[in-house]
Amino acid sequence: MNKVSKSKNGITIFGYSDISNFIVESFLKSSKNHDITLIVDQKDKSISSSLVRASNQITLKKENLSDALVINENDYKNNLLTILATNDTKFNILSAALIKSIFSTNNVYCCINDVKYDELFNGKGIEIFYPWNLPTKLKHLWK
Amino acid sequence: MYVIIIGVNNLTQKLVTSYSEYEHEVTVIEKDIEKCHYFDQLFGPICQNGDACDPEIQSLAGMDRADILIIATKSDKDNFLIGMVAKSKYNVKKTINLANDSSYIKAFSYFGINTVINIESMILRSIEQETSILAPWAITELNTNPKKIILGIRIDSYSKIIGKSIKDIILPNHSSIILLIRANGITDPPSEHKTIHSEDELLILTEEKNKNKMLEYLS
């Protein structure tokens, strides 16, 4: 398993979804130089052509996302951003919690598809967002 | 006491039987309606049908007045989410949560799940306890600050403290031997003149941070 970059400009995004696609493209369109790693599940076969084209600008990794080792064996401590953006809300929640608990890192963003869980991490250092409503703090990073 | 258990399975059946004997009130939340009916027939109407990850289902089950929540499904994603919803929305006092994959134990603990059970760790601990020379087993953690623990330790034949009396054993600060169990099973209060023998077991109260220092001393 290749380790994720420890760059302070590093952004790690988990999941192949409309929202992760949008976030990656937004970063790529911005003039800012980020070290982006996109980790998708090895079952995700149909990676979009735009992402494949972008694969020389980002690090695209296929991993078994149901294996907690994917998270445990990488280092997100100095990441500028870590974004959990798969289509599986429960995966995003548990993985965001795992990253926060291991690395005590700030700037962990967790995408959820259900407003029922909006207060789950209140005051716990994980930012919850919806695919239809990206946090301004996040958008500022590519604007 | 009001206990909520997630999921119908063999463990739940044993727990419900046990809690009912002591006349505690129990509700089981279960997704599968057939399993709900089965349990209701066995124990009376104790099942709330629905997904325990859903705050509304938790509300219907009376999570806001639960004293203990026991979560032991096969999915760590569900186990974590159910526990977090119960804590954040209904302020449940005590949650006991199964972590099927030990990698997630840290996340469960970090986010305030009171007790995390991991089968793999329990098996490893049992094996260590049975086979290793100086493998301590944690008996309990106390809610003190700094955190104190009670450990059980079996003294092997190479230990430096064999032949020493208890008054000559210098444990780290704020640590004490609280019980001596002889190899033949007889318990001995740890008065100063008692001597340590091979195969004795010691119950020791110590601060968690001193655990390794203590093991080094006793080995």
Brief characterization of the structure:
The complex is a heterodimer of chains A (143) and B (219). Chain A is built from five helices and six strands.
Descriptive tags:
heterodimer, A: about 140 residues, alpha/beta, six-stranded parallel sheet, globular, B: about 220 residues, Rossmann fold, Alpha-Beta Plaits, 2 domains, five-stranded antiparallel sheet, 7 helices, elongated
What value does the Rg of chain A take, in angstroms?
Answer: 14 Å
**Secondary structure: helix percent of chain A:** 25-40%
Whole-number count of domains of chain B: 2
Ends apart, CA distance between termini of chain B: 43 Å
What does this structure look like?
The complex is a heterodimer of chains A (143) and B (219). Chain A is α/β, with parallel strands linked by helices and 143 residues long. Among the domains of chain A are: 20-64, no CATH class; 75-83 and 98-143, no CATH class. Chain A is built from five helices and six strands; from the N terminus they run βαβαβαβαββα. Chain A has helices spanning 18-29, 49-53, 69-72, 89-103, 136-140; strands spanning 10-14, 35-41, 59-63, 81-84, 108-111, 126-129. In chain A, strands 3-2-1-4-5-6 form a six-stranded parallel beta sheet, with helices on both faces. In chain A, strand 4 (81-84), helix 4 and strand 5 form a beta-alpha-beta unit. The N and C termini of chain A lie far apart (33 Å). Chain B has 219 residues and is of the alpha/beta class. Chain B folds into two domains: 2-121, 3-Layer(aba) Sandwich (Rossmann fold); 132-218, Regulator of K+ conductance, C-terminal domain (Alpha-Beta Plaits, 2-Layer Sandwich), CATH 3.30.70.1450. Chain B has seven helices and eleven strands. Chain B has a six-stranded parallel beta sheet, sandwiched between helices. The mean pLDDT of chain B is 89. The interface between A and B is medium-sized, with 21 and 22 residues.
List the helices and strands and how they pair.
The complex is a heterodimer of chains A (143) and B (219).
Chain A: E1 10-14, H1 18-29, E2 35-41, H2 49-53, E3 59-63, H3 69-72, E4 81-84, H4 89-103, E5 108-111, E6 126-129, H5 136-140
Parallel strand pairs in A: 1-2, 1-4, 2-3, 4-5, 5-6
Chain B: E1 2-6, H1 10-21, E2 25-30, H2 33-43, E3 47-49, H3 55-60, E4 68-71, H4 76-90, E5 94-98, H5 105-110, E6 115-117, H6 119-131, E7 137-142, E8 148-154, E9 176-181, E10 187-188, E11 201-207, H7 211-218
Parallel strand pairs in B: 1-2, 1-4, 2-3, 4-5, 5-6
Antiparallel strand pairs in B: 7-8, 8-11, 9-10, 9-11
